[in-house]
Amino acid sequence: MSADFLYGVEVVINGLMSGVLYALVALGFVLIFKASGIFNYAQGVMALFAALTLVGVMEGQVPFSHIINATFGTDIHHFGWHVPALLAIALTLVVMIAFAWMVHTFVFKHLVGQEPIILFMATIGLAYFLEGIGDLMWGSDIKTLDIGIPQGGSMWVENISVHLGGEDFYGFFIDKLDITASIVAAILVIGLIVFAQYTKQGRAMRAVADDHQAALSVGISLNFIWILVWSLAGMVALVAGVMWGAKSGVQFSLSLIALKALPVLMLGGFTSIPGAIVGGLIIGVGEKLFEFMIGPMVGGATENWFAYVLALIFLVFRPQGLFGERIIERV
Amino acid sequence: MLYREAGDFKTSYAADSQTFPIKFDRWRYWVVLAVAWLVIPFFINDYWANAILVPFLIYAIAAIGLNILTGYCGQVSLGTGGFMAVGAYSVYKLMTSFPDVSILIHVVLAGFITAAVGAAFGLPSLRIKGFYLAVATLAAQFFLVWLFNKVPWFYNYSASGQISAPERFIGNIAVTGAETTPWAQYLICLFFVTLCALLARNLTRGSLGRQWMAIRDMDIAAEIIGVDPLKAKLTAFAVSSFFIGIAGALFFAVYLGAVEVGEAFGIQKSFLVLFMCIIGGLGSIFGSFAGAAFLVLLPVALKVLGVDILGWPSSTVAHLQLVAVGGLIMFFLIKEPHGLAQLWRVAKEKLRMWPFPY
């Protein structure tokens, strides 16, 4: 096999890996959208906030230390302890659940029944709010997140694949982190499916997604389900934040992956969990391949827009996405 | 007492269909125009022009543009930043290619170029609706910014990749470049704001505006009663982009003077203008002004309060500003989804009844 072809294959594999991360964020969108019709723009910022909180808890940072220092003239930054990773993850989960409760109680409970576009705008507001709070609480500097996930190229993959090509081929380079992320994402998706199919709360969640009023009439608490869904989305955001944060540091650009998740959703359809995953993979592979093959001809950095244009062209032919429910309009 | 229709008899059709049917409104309108044109230019200084008035006027044009598309025609767009960039880069290319032509003509031409680009990106709106369309307009945002970054022809092959406005004069008064006086900056922006607001107000009152609103309220029903969705949606995209292009051209040429496209016209700008429309009130020209004023004043007020009075570091205040903007948007959506314009409408309703509310 020629080296060029093998490089192409490597690009595809790396695209699949980054597609997994897009799919993780998109998954959080789908969860909330199915259950409450809210298109949650803040999902990416939730990932950022979760990652910031995790780092902050692990390092024992004092929340809001900048404001406290500026107001009272003190100089405090850290409590001086380090929390082990697992405990810190548990604590962050608690924070995300509390956040879900607050979001529901103070914002979306009051917006039930509003037009979808109003809800969307509210989540943009939420995204700004959360981003500001995250920066105020933990500071806006770039942080490294290290919870012991292996990193760097996998020698094992390289050693196996080196024999495939000729002399100028050195084997596939695949980051161990990406492999871990794919495995974690797979476990998460299986866990979510099992939860939705086989538990009482999961069934209630699906009932709410099908029909609010019918679910309400058989005694399902909508409030509880919505908080549950936001908590689940918070959990997915935490996983996405950890993976992305470990890869490129916890910083503001993390929240921009939310934007990348939008074309993923458009491809897959807003209401479909498999759609989010397949869409993520298509976008991941598509943009890497496009950058690899066409990018050098037009000056590179096509990753910024390719996903959106691909989704746009795709939508013109199939407006509900790959797996979305058929859009039926009534007058 | 002052604010009512009673006693104000219309004797001609022209008087009956005028923009402001109530006498008080007409007077208020002329007073505002007179103050803006005849009083403020004599008192304006550098700080007021650069920090508040000029950005307010420019954002007001952009907000009117987006309000036509989102508020009147119901098509959510997140591509405002990209379209502003089109306006800025077309005015730059025009200014450098035809240095003898007046800048006023260049700005209007930039508006028309942006209108063409906007209509092209509006084509998918015939097939894609709602959120899907909002995300599709992101394609315009990212693609256009990338294009202006990567194709050197657009920035005349300058080494930094920035564009900077050459000096241009109207009469012998500098309106762009380093020598510009605050009042000249202010007046040229005010000129375009007046023009755009008049145009927008009358467009939205007329047949075209009614078609847009019919499409917004229910597109299928509108189609059945004979509104052509192709025409209505594409004109909305074109007219909206025309305003946004003018705003982008002024933002670059008059206000900033030199821009780097990703920084000045990024996705944040799209959201900022969208917020102005929401906070001001969707589907209201007055709302566009109110929203622009609010979001231009808020950071200035927070900065004065946080940095100058409380003595916090400016980065903290910048984060606090995010919190405030986000919180206010949620607050407005919960308490008053129709924005500041609705408060104004309610106030007018009360005024009409006053002092005998029964």
Automatic annotation (TrEMBL), chain A:
It is a multi-pass membrane protein. This is Amino acid/amide ABC transporter membrane protein 1, HAAT family. The chain crosses the membrane at residues 12-32, 38-58, 79-104, 116-138, 179-198, 218-244, 264-285. One of its GO terms (cellular component) is plasma membrane. Pfam families: BPD_transp_2. It comes from the Bacteria. InterPro entries: ABC_transp_permease, BCAA_transport_permease. It is found in: Cell membrane. Belongs to the binding-protein-dependent transport system permease family. LivHM subfamily. One of its GO terms (molecular function) is transmembrane transporter activity. Keywords: Amino-acid transport, Cell membrane, Membrane, Transmembrane, Transmembrane helix, Transport. Its main location: membrane. The keyword Hydrolase does not apply. One of its GO terms (biological process) is amino acid transport. The keyword Nucleotide-binding does not apply.
From TrEMBL, chain B:
InterPro entries: ABC_transp_permease, LivM-like. Keywords: Cell membrane, Membrane, Transmembrane, Transmembrane helix. The keyword Acyltransferase does not apply. The chain crosses the membrane at residues 27-44, 50-69, 76-95, 101-123, 130-148, 183-203, 234-258, 270-298, 310-334. Its main location: membrane. It is found in: Cell membrane. This is Amino acid/amide ABC transporter membrane protein 2, HAAT family. It comes from Loktanella salsilacus.
